[in-house]
Write a structure and sequence with these properties.
By secondary structure, this protein is an alpha/beta fold. It is 43% helix and 15% strand. The chain has 16 helices and 16 strands. It starts with a helix and ends with a helix. The structure holds pyridoxal-5'-phosphate. The site of pyridoxal-5'-phosphate (PLP) has 13 residues, from helix 8. Its cofactor is pyridoxal 5'-phosphate. In the C-terminal section; belongs to the class-I pyridoxal-phosphate-dependent aminotransferase family.
Amino acid sequence: MQGETNQYIYRQIYTRLKEDILSFKYESHEKLPSKRGMAETLNVSVNSVKSAYEQLLAEGYIYAKERKGYFIEPLDQLIVDPDAQKTLGQYKEGKPQLYEYSFSHMSTDMSEFPVDVWTKLLKRVFDNYEYYLSAIPNIKGPIELRQSIAKLVSYQRGIQCHPEQIIIGSGTNTLLKRLMQLLPTEVKIGVENPGYSRFRNLLNEGGTTTIPLELDGKGISINQINATQPDAVIVTPSHQFPTGIIMPVSRRIDLLNWASTTNSYIIEDDYDSEFKYQTDNIPSLYSFDKNESVIYLGTFSKTLMPGLRLSYMILPPALVQKFETHNFDMIPDFSMLNALTLNLMIKEGYYEKYVKKMHQHYGRKREQLIVALQQAFQDKVNIKDTEAGLHFMIDVKSPFTYEEIEQRAKEAKLELYTINRFIVKALEENNGVKTLIIGFSKIKIEQLDDAVRCLKKVLLG
Ligand SMILES: Cc1ncc(COP(=O)(O)O)c(C=O)c1O
């Protein structure tokens, strides 16, 4: 208790003196009273004054001369810009919007996540991987996880690659940024339209030119690629985002041939390929490629959770050395603790078991949601139901504009995205038909009917 009181008194003396020095109540080089003298004036212990003087000395407010005492350091007036102060005062952290129901395509269902398994494996990482945890990690990620991913993509995605080609990152967005640093600065990247707007915005903000490319029934349009001549394209062939188109083999061959004849890259965003409901897994575009034209992006944000922030990129051999040279001084941005825990989860079969379980869970949810939508909207809805992924698109006849729908959803505490979020030029009215993206991963099965009732109210009034 005595210690705490001294601590408190020392802090008060230190703060008072600091404020007085900063407001120039003391002259430069003015001598401070001796410790004993100050202690007597303030009626406190010499130790409290000593601690305050030592702190001021450490921070450079005063200086000491041997056997002479403590003196005020000459300081310039700190320039204070009144406008900067105003901006700071105005800044308020916006509260996150809380939703009653969510049709977000970005979320996952956490209710079945094996927290006990994760915790057990995390403890094992602490016990066995101190050499990794206590040092700066390899920029490409721990070799153990890269080896596990190489095996995983081999039997799940038909990808034959060496762990050396795999780069772990804290998200496909950050990996895409790293990839851009390896390509010439003036590259033009073709992006799907509609497509994953985060990629498009990220590239544009980073100064890369993007070319929005329309889709036809088979996915990204080869005619448009030929007409606009991008240096690379980003595609989602396993389940086009957001339309759901699965790129048929004919278009895959056309795309690969375009890449090899023009010496261009195809960036394959394989974000949710683990979830196919009636068919078997569809092989990746990377697995078709014989000319090292494809750069593969994979993520654990859909199979596990977006909050984990673990994704990976598989580079063609020609870019591996370039990546290593370019990133020689970089420190990776992912959590080593999570990366090593994930490695154990994959290696010991828990990951595959969990994905299988979630596959069934999402499949059931998806079917029930489709029935609920058909019952609620009847002939006012057209469900564009590709049997894959964690979202689908619907067309609904609604008397409201897109803007009104977004506002009404917000007011109803319903998380809902329209096609306009993913398209370069906002869609105009189309005989009252509005296109929406319906993500079904986050919503609970027991909430489905209520959520659809809420959606109906938002869309039809
Ligand atoms: C189309 C698309 N690509 C990629 C991702 C994965 O992003 P990340 O790995 O940064 O979480 C998502 C996530 O929702 C997505 O919707």
